[in-house]
Design brief:
5 helices, about 75% helix, mainly alpha, single chain
Length: about 210
């Protein structure tokens, strides 16, 4: 009866892991379901470790008590041996479930990392758009503020062209400088060095030392 209950628990955990494994093969998944699956996987992994430890203690008790209690009965010895085989099989099953949960944790964690990376790329694109917009309007605001201090640069005055003559080149220059990459330049790979004692055939195969 006890073995059947443990087998039922093992079947429940196996079904839950199979469900998560099937869902992890979906083409596109949102971040929140992946995080929920990761939490569930950690919980089932802890349960598998706990049940494995309990079964180890039960197996030790079965080996000590059953062998001593049924040593005079051939039928009892067979039953004791069968119970030990059942417990050993359950131990192996829970060990497999624990390993499977750990593998699924690795897979789901990788999927979460990909999702977070995609979100970071989207946020970077949005920030770049805002930065370009700020670079475009900042020189215009500056020139407008400076030229508004005098009345000779209004649109209906004789120097209306000064605003466009100053604002357009300055805006182009600021956008160009601000949109240039500021990271380190990629280093060119060094030419491969070959040992002078190697043959041309080894060098062509890339096996030179």
């Amino acid at each position: 009866m006890m073995v059947m209950e443990w087998a039922n628990v093992n079947h429940i955990i196996e079904c839950e892991l199979t469900k998560i494994d099937f869902e992890s093969t979906a083409a596109t998944r949102q971040l929140q379901p992946l995080q929920k699956d990761l939490i569930d996987l950690h919980r089932w992994r802890r349960h598998s470790m706990k049940y494995h430890s309990i079964l180890q203690r039960n197996l030790a008790i079965c080996r000590e008590k059953c062998a001593a209690g049924w040593k005079d009965s051939i039928h009892g010895q067979k039953r004791a041996e069968a119970r030990k085989i059942d417990f050993e099989s359950l131990l192996l099953d829970f060990q497999i479930l624990q390993t499977r949960a750990e593998n699924l944790i690795t897979v789901v964690s990788a999927q979460i990392s990909v999702q977070i990376g995609d979100l970071a790329v989207v946020e970077a694109v949005r920030m770049r758009r805002l930065t370009i917009a700020a670079l475009f309007f900042l020189p215009l605001s500056l020139i407008t503020g400076l030229l508004s201090m005098g009345g000779s640069f209004a649109l209906d005055s004789s120097r209306w062209w000064v605003f466009f003559a100053v604002a357009i080149p300055l805006t182009v220059a600021v956008v160009f400088v601000g949109s240039r990459p500021t990271g380190p330049k990629p280093q060119l790979s060094k030419p491969k060095q070959f040992n002078e004692l190697d043959s041309t055939w080894l060098q062509a195969l890339g096996m030179s030392y």
